[in-house]
TrEMBL record:
Gene it is expressed from: LOC110987179
Keyword Transmembrane helix recorded: yes
Protein name: Monocarboxylate transporter 5-like
Annotated source species: Acanthaster planci
Bilayer topology: Multi-pass membrane protein
Pfam families per UniProt: MFS_1
Keywords: Membrane, Transmembrane, Transmembrane helix
């Protein structure tokens, strides 16, 4: 079916994407409440249990390009349903685990792969069903992540107290199956790709050529057998061309032999047949000998290797979408900015420990994280309406909110009391959430078609999560060496300042290009 964008069923798809982020990503991101329980019940160290959550995030990042390629191949509906099944399966395997290794397999590899499929596919579904209101729809869908962060940690704590951690995982496994239900509403759509358009044009040309008279200006015989055709445009034209060239008129099927000509006798015909048969047998033996003798020659091995490399190149550049990263300079800049944006996420992790080190009570320090979540909800809900109404552009809003995110991190080391840190927490939530949503929206505008969004978002998430992991590890090393989080916050601010500078350069270059086009248009008039 061809979708009616920005209306009708599109809003159901948006709710499905919200449900994916709420029940799928929210459940996965709230696994941190199980760490202390796993350490006590399984008698494991903090390092080994932290690997369960870390490997899950790493697998989600590494599988994102693969999920994007699979989503481009099979569509968002199938990938979202499969992602929900894998998230549920990972939770069930984790509930049966008796060692940390099984937890790593269940909650790390299986759940990470499922979350990657569901997360990437949800943006592909939005890109197919939304055009002018994509920014608003992606913001409304991504707010499910913020609601999941607020809802599932206390819910998991309650379920652990009542049913134990194994029963809690089984209940969350049932909740995560709502991801599959959300994927079911993402009905497949038929997009007119370049290949389909070429085949359609070829079929139209062939049909036009068949109407009227034949090449020798005779009316076509309706009783004549119809040539074989295939369902593909290229194959259809090829089969018809071969059949037309292999048939002829009755006047050309037989040779006219003049009277008195010497005709070959039966014995001569028999000898000729024996010679032809011997020649054919010799050719077949020679052909088989060549095939058996040259099967493993260096030349044939080289050809097969080149063929495999070409297939892998097609998969990597076309199916996985790396061609956009290689051929689109702006996409390279966006991916680098996404890496820096992920690096700056250290503020969301270390804001509570840093507040406790400066003398703020643990209760008020944890409230800073809630304020970040509240700012995130406000930012995700508000920005899309203004951008879709064209009051502001996505590039300009992205640059300013990224600068807001940068400034809120830079100023954290300057304050030791709760009120200013609370204000900075709200600013951090707004800047982080809006810039994160607009990263995906900008990538959507850079792609030539909506079907390429999943592959591009997959590569963006890969660099995004790699930057997050590097930022967290580097911040931990800085704290171990200097025993202070202030240097880590300053480092994150510097990285985000570079990213915001690149965003402003990208915006002003686009603005100058637009002004130049307007001037040329005015001069031509």
């Amino acid at each position: 079916m061809e979708p009616h964008t920005d209306s009708g069923w599109s809003w159901v798809v948006m709710f499905g994407a919200f449900l994916v982020n709420f029940t799928g990503i929210g459940v996965v991101m709230s696994r941190g409440v199980y760490l202390n329980v796993w350490m006590e019940d399984l008698e494991a160290s903090a390092t080994s249990t932290s690997l369960v959550v870390s490997i899950g995030a790493l697998m989600m990042a590494l599988f994102s390009p693969v999920s994007g390629a699979l989503c481009t191949k099979f569509g968002p509906r199938m990938l979202t349903i499969l992602g929900g099944v894998l998230i549920m399966g990972g939770a069930i395997v984790s509930s049966l685990a008796s060692t940390v290794s099984l937890l790593v397999i269940g909650n790390g590899f299986i759940t990470g792969l499922g979350a990657s499929m569901a997360f990437v596919s949800s943006f592909q579904g939005l890109a197919l069903y939304f055009n002018h209101k994509f920014t608003f729809a992606s913001g409304m869908a991504s707010v499910g992540i913020s609601f999941g962060h607020l809802a599932f940690p206390p819910l998991n704590t309650y379920l652990i107290d009542v049913y134990g951690w194994r029963g809690s995982l089984l209940i969350t496994a049932a909740v995560s199956m709502h991801v599959a239900v959300a994927g079911a509403v993402m009905r497949p759509v038929a997009l007119m790709t370049a290949a389909n358009k070429k085949n359609a044009d070829l079929n139209a040309n062939v049909s036009e050529a068949e109407v009227g008279v034949t090449e020798d200006n005779r009316e076509p015989d309706n009783n004549a057998p119809k040539p074989l055709t295939t369902t593909q445009g290229n194959g259809q034209a090829l089969v018809r061309m071969v059949i037309e060239r292999s048939t002829s008129d009755n006047s050309q099927q037989f040779l006219r032999i003049p009277p008195g000509a010497d005709l070959p006798s039966d014995e001569d015909s028999t000898k000729d047949d024996e010679k032809d048969s011997a020649r054919d047998n010799g050719a077949n033996e020679f052909s088989q000998g060549r095939r058996s003798g040259f099967r493993d020659t260096p030349h044939s091995i080289f050809e097969s290797s080149v063929r495999r490399l070409l297939v892998f190149k097609h998969f990597l550049f076309v199916t996985c979408g790396m061609k956009h990263f290689v051929l689109t300079p702006r996409f390279k800049v966006v991916v680098i900015v996404g890496f820096c944006h992920g690096f700056g996420k250290l503020s969301l992790v270390y804001v509570v420990p840093r507040a406790e080190t400066v003398g703020i009570t643990p209760e008020r320090a944890s409230l800073l994280l809630s304020l970040i979540g509240a700012g995130s909800v406000v930012g995700r809900l508000s920005h899309g309406w203004f951008i879709d109404r064209q009051y502001v552009t996505a590039e300009m809003t992205f640059a300013w909110t990224l600068l807001l995110f940068c400034g809120s991190i830079f100023l954290v080391p300057a304050f030791d009391s709760f009120p200013p840190l609370g204000v900075l927490a709200v600013m951090t939530g707004i800047g982080y959430s809006v810039s994160a949503c607009l990263l995906v929206a900008i990538v959507r505008t850079l792609m030539p078609s909506a079907s390429d969004t999943a592959a591009a978002v997959g590569f963006l998430i890969l660099f995004w999560d790699v930057g997050e992991i590097i930022g967290l590890l580097l911040s931990g090393v800085i704290y171990d060496v200097l025993r202070s989080f202030d240097v880590a916050f300053v480092t994150g601010g510097v990285v985000l300042l570079l990213a915001s500078s690149a965003a402003f350069v990208m915006y002003f270059r686009k603005r100058m290009k637009y002004c130049k086009c307007e001037m040329n248009r005015a001069a031509s008039i």
